[in-house]
Design brief:
With 309 residues, this protein is α/β, with parallel strands linked by helices. It has helices spanning 40-48, 56-62, 111-122, 169-184, 199-217, 237-246, 282-292, 297-304, and strands spanning 30-34, 52-55, 101-104, 149-151, 157-158, 166-167, 191-193, 229-234, 254-260, 277-279. The two termini are 27 Å apart.
Length: 309
């Protein structure tokens, strides 16, 4: 079982937009998906059940003047035609591209392009790309709601092959929010971030763990005992450890956190959120957890042994 930061977005397909009078589920509406390499995140979103997914590559190739500082030719190999054209004052089309929600699945590769397009969508009239709301609406007591914006990962930094941490999706969000605050601070922003350390992500993961455990155990007597203990292993105190420490399971399971030194964290820092234990790497974390659960040392060594040949 493999859960990524954006995997909980799969549960959004059956949600309805509270601003949409039709109450159609999001899976049947057009959504904008940002981030990732080429078309990867669109394909993931479609695998989750979204049926009409648009990317910033689709938009810039259809309307190159929208952002003149990038080459549309860079995106033509994987961009798709838009389901409806973008609005412009001379358009004669009866319908135009309308975005119901914006999802940032992974780290965007072209921050400037994505910030511009997300801003355009959020400032549009009812999600119709190419339109803009009157600023006077923002001064009303109940301004028209914006298109919802969802981020999948708040991490400012992550560990790569470079020897220093690199900016992550949290960095992109900070850049976007900085632009929004500088230009449109009077307009309320409907934004939500899932991913660690949010409760939604940990609850989603626990539900998947429980389902997976039930499939593995089947009718075995242990299945009736429920999921008693979960060990949260991570390298980032601000997401992995904070999320595991703060999570209170609605099912009664106990979560212990294990911090590893093989990523963002190193011993020169004092972790802002204290784990149950700090170890060198993932194998050490697994070994520590198994020992805590009463496994014999020789059995653990067999499980963790690696054939170097």
């Amino acid at each position: 079982m493999f859960i990524q930061s954006h995997t909980p977005f799969a549960d959004f397909t059956h949600q309805t937009d509270r601003h949409d009078k039709s109450k159609a589920p999001l899976k049947d509406k057009t959504v904008l998906v940002c981030g990732g390499d080429q078309d990867d995140c669109r394909q993931v979103a479609e695998s989750y059940g979204f049926t009409s997914v648009v990317t910033t590559a689709d938009i810039i190739t259809s309307t190159p003047t929208l952002w003149p500082f990038t080459s549309p030719q860079s995106y033509t190999s994987y961009a798709r035609p838009l389901p409806q054209p973008i609005y412009n004052p001379s358009s004669t089309s009866p319908t135009h591209l309308t975005i119901s929600s914006v999802f940032v699945f992974a780290d965007p590769r072209d921050w400037a392009l994505d910030i511009q397009i997300i801003t355009d969508v959020l400032l549009s009239r009812g999600g119709v790309v190419g339109t803009t709301r009157s600023r006077s609406l923002a001064r009303q007591e109940n301004p028209a709601p914006l298109v919802p914006l969802y981020f999948s990962n708040p991490d400012l930094q992550w560990a790569s092959q470079y020897h220093l941490p690199r900016l992550g999706q949290g960095g992109f969000k900070a850049a976007f929010m900085g632009v929004w605050e500088a230009i449109h601070r009077e307009i309320p922003l409907e934004e939500k971030t899932i991913g660690k350390p949010s409760r939604e992500t940990f609850e989603f993961a626990e539900k998947r763990l429980r389902e997976h455990r039930q499939k593995l155990l089947g009718t075995h007597k242990g299945a009736a005992l429920g999921l008693r203990k979960v060990y949260m292993v991570g390298d980032n105190p601000l997401s992995d450890i904070q999320g595991g420490n703060d999570y209170s399971s609605p099912f009664g399971s106990v979560w212990d956190t294990i911090l590893v030194r093989t990523g963002v964290y190193n011993d020169s820092q004092v972790p802002p959120h204290k784990p149950k234990v700090t170890v060198d790497g993932v194998w050490d974390a697994v070994k520590w957890a198994l020992l805590r659960e009463g496994w014999p040392t020789d059995e653990i060594e067999k499980i963790l042994s690696v054939d170097d040949t």
